[in-house]
């Protein structure tokens, strides 16, 4: 996953309150949800039952607080 400055172990939580899944970034940049490895945020959102754009569904825990993967990706592309 190329969403910018996301380190292994970063916790991802849904932006939607009705979902209580917790995912994490592994050491290869993939997303692990319920023991299953996913290559994309949207695939992981689908696995959580959300059937939506995972870039906006998942929030990453960062030192600045929770930030959507979409915002992290946009910030990363602005830095390039």
Automatic annotation (TrEMBL):
InterPro entries: RAMA. Residues 1-75 form the RAMA domain. It comes from the Bacteria. This is RAMA domain-containing protein. It comes from Streptomyces chlorus.
